[in-house]
Design goal:
alpha/beta, OB fold (Dihydrolipoamide Acetyltransferase, E2P), 4 domains, six-stranded parallel β-sheet, 17% strand
Length: 699
């Protein structure tokens, strides 16, 4: 069949002109196999030569066309000989142009008073913004620049592929797209696409590859143009479809119906020294309803640090136990699993329930005994780290899996957990908890396979933490502050941080600090915990701190999650500039858990870089995890915050669920509609955007 009558997803790229074996290999590296794939390889940006920018509006990193008049030109003899040309504009702003390679004639041409038009990337120079080796145009050519060439697409590339090759390939793909109406199926049905009032798929693709001369440049560069929005919508829709399909597939296997009579839950609630907040109550009801249904629960519970997720999870656990099932509670660190064990003993021992604990420190006979308790069903609730998911751990009747403080997890991990609990035709319910709150629309976009519950309220009586930044030149004052606080009966944390991920170095830093503080603070009772201290030695220290028998706990970031000592009201964080916002917020959340005013001192090492200064300013200003997550997303973008890359999570090529927030709900509704009414469109739509990505292909 002639190429121009074939659907584009059937045409292999090697049928195009200019594609030889080497180029084929390069394209494959980018997972471009068919002409359809090529067409969906969109420019990542455009060079804008349509209009000159004012010198005063340039920012570092911009690629811009500028007009100016030469004010000064000199040959500088530094480490490298260079030609420096200072241009200015009517508004009196200036820009340095710097050339390292130039002929005498070129230097000669840079005479003061001459107008100059340049195109280049703006960088921060020693004294001012500058462009290194801009393209320089003769003023008389100015009007000769064809506007059509002015907005040049730049394609994401791979080694050995020039932009000019991309353009030549895309030209062929666009010609085939236009050759026949059937070249590219639009899998999105009319009733979903029309209300969005966005261009057709073919039109959007053609537009983005070859923007017309009068295209609104800014909208293209900022990706707010309707053509871009149409494709971003399609991509989000494809992700929703993939995740929904995965979820439906999982839901084909029933979960046990965990109704329970409420007896254990009532007794726990009566024993608590507080009442649940309305938010805890509401979220608890959502979970209870899920557990009582044979559809496996897959719920993400978000709640700020200290919002009281543990008690909500414990109520869910008791519901499972009432129904005769076991519960696995998984924590990301040994220390947090110990903390949970401690709380659960306090809450569940009086109810006559046995709490199991599977830890890396259990060896030999002890470990066998624990495995036996899990296998026999004697242990109702079993706490542990990911060691819980090793395959020699066999539960008698696992009804519910709870995963605590899971900040970063991708589709892979979720799939693996699902596989773990599946036995004899049933699958356990799943509750995942996180203190990294993300906006609902973003959660909907990236966790479309999960239901979402949010505890959006802190227990009453908490006083917001006051956070201040102090340079480490004032360390003595900070130490004095610790002394006074402890003398007044308060407890404090001193957190040592290091950039290196090395446990050994972290541990060393904490040991040195503990030693130094013991010397400067005679009379204070000081404890030390870090990742290198064995659980058996760490536990008594934590217990003593909890019981108020220690005044000051020196620690590494191992205490980041889960440590809960309500009387601690002062935290010092050394070198906070080394940590990210979310981590700092987590750490700080160890204080402010009781009614007294709490303080967090960020003992930084000057000078601070701009990014670190921003982070610390946000932390001082904001106390809510939601506000901090929001700021973090703006600073770093969704991919970084969610750790999607590392976690093998769904990655978007074009869409940014923050920028395209207004389309998320429509994509979700659209996915449900397509699954129901257009099932045969689902697979090709997913393949178009996600290819055969392993995590989705398994369904
Ligand atoms: P997180 O959501 O960070 O895991 P925790 O579950 O550790 O928070 O709860 C923090 C502290 O608040 C604990 O000491 C817990 O017992 C207490 N707490 C939980 N719910 C309430 C409530 N409704 N009123 C008062 N204190 C509560
Ligand atoms: Mg917690």
């Amino acid at each position: 069949m002639p190429l121009d009558q074939m659907p584009l997803d059937q045409i292999q790229v090697d049928r195009l002109k200019r594609v030889g074996p080497r180029m084929l290999e390069r394209l494959q590296r980018l997972r471009i196999e068919t002409v359809q794939d090529l067409l969906f390889h969109l420019p990542s940006r455009y060079q804008d030569r349509t209009r000159p920018r004012r010198l005063g509006e340039l920012r570092v990193g911009d690629e811009a066309l500028v007009d100016g008049v030469i004010a000064d030109a000199q040959i500088a003899f530094g480490r490298r000989r260079s030609l420096k040309v200072w241009i200015t504009d009517d508004a009196g702003n200036g820009l340095m142009l710097r050339f390292f390679h130039f002929s005498p004639a070129q230097a000669e041409a840079m005479r003061p008073g001459r107008p100059l038009r340049c195109y280049g990337e703006v960088r921060q120079g020693p004294q001012s913004l500058e462009m290194v080796h801009p393209e320089v145009q003769q003023p008389q050519d100015q009007d000769a620049v064809a506007v059509g060439e002015a907005l040049t697409p730049i394609y994401p590339s791979t080694e050995g592929m020039q932009q000019i090759s991309w353009r030549a390939l895309i030209d062929q793909a666009l010609a085939l797209l236009n050759a026949s109406a059937g070249a590219l199926r639009d899998w999105v049905p009319e009733e979903i696409a029309r209300p969005l009032r966005l261009p057709s798929l073919a039109h959007a693709l053609a537009y983005l590859h070859r923007p017309p001369a009068d295209a609104p440049v800014q909208a293209l560069i900022e990706r707010t143009h309707p053509a871009f929005q149409r494709l971003a919508f399609d991509e989000m829709l494809a992700h929703q479809l993939a995740l929904r399909r995965m979820r439906n597939f999982r839901r084909n296997v029933p979960a046990p119906v965990l109704e329970g009579d409420g007896a254990l839950r009532t007794r726990l609630l009566q024993s608590l020294p507080f009442r649940l907040t309305d938010a805890q109550q509401r979220v608890g009801d959502e979970i209870a309803a899920d557990l009582a249904s044979p559809l496996p629960m897959m719920r993400l519970l978000q709640g700020d640090v200290g919002s009281g997720k543990t008690v909500v999870a414990t109520l869910a656990a008791l519901q499972a136990v009432e129904a005769g099932y076991q519960v696995a509670l998984m924590a990301p660190t040994e220390l947090l699993s110990e903390q949970h064990l401690y709380s659960l003993h306090g809450w569940l021992d009086p109810l006559g329930l046995q709490v199991g604990w599977l830890s890396g420190r259990h060896k030999g006979a002890e470990r066998d005994a624990m495995l036996q308790q899990i296998a026999s069903g004697a242990a109702s609730v079993v706490v542990g780290t990911h060691a819980l998911f090793q395959h020699e751990v066999v539960f008698s009747r696992l009804g519910l899996t709870i995963i605590d403080e899971q900040h970063r997890f991708g589709v892979h991990q979720r799939m693996r957990l699902r596989d773990k609990g599946e036995r004899e035709g049933t699958t356990p319910h799943q509750l995942i908890m996180t203190a990294t709150p993300i906006p609902r629309s973003l959660a909907m976009a990236v966790y479309a396979d999960l239901d979402l519950s949010v505890i959006d309220q802190l227990p009453a009586g908490r006083t917001p933490i006051t956070t201040v930044a102090v340079p480490d030149s004032r360390r003595d004052e900070v130490i004095e502050r610790v002394r006074q606080a402890c003398a007044g009966g308060r407890q404090a944390y001193w957190v040592c941080t290091l950039v290196e991920e090395s446990d050994a170095l972290q541990a060393q830093a904490a040991e040195d600090t503990a030693l130094a503080l013991t010397e400067s603070l005679p009379g204070l009772r000081i404890g030390l915990v870090h990742g290198r201290i064995k659980a058996a030695e760490r536990e008594p220290v934590m217990a003593a701190f909890k019981a108020g028998e220690l005044d000051l706990l020196v620690a590494t970031t191992v205490i980041e999650v889960g440590v809960d000592v309500p009387d601690a009201s002062l935290m010092i964080i050394e070198n906070p500039e080394r940590l990210g916002l979310a981590q700092l917020h987590q750490l700080r959340g160890r204080v402010g858990r009781g009614p007294v005013q709490s303080f967090c001192l960020l003992l930084y090492h000057p000078p601070l870089g701009a990014a670190a200064r921003d982070r610390l300013a946000i932390l001082r200003r904001e106390t809510s995890g939601f506000a901090i997550a929001d700021a973090d997303l703006k600073l770093r973008g969704a991919g970084e915050v969610l750790g999607t890359r590392q976690a093998g999570n769904a990655q978007f090529r074009l869409a940014d669920p923050l920028r395209e927030e207004h389309l998320v709900a429509a994509a979700q509704r659209g996915a449900d509609h397509m699954l129901q009414h257009w099932p045969e469109h689902v697979a090709p739509m997913i393949r178009r955007w996600l290819g055969d990505r392993e995590e989705y292909a398994r369904v």
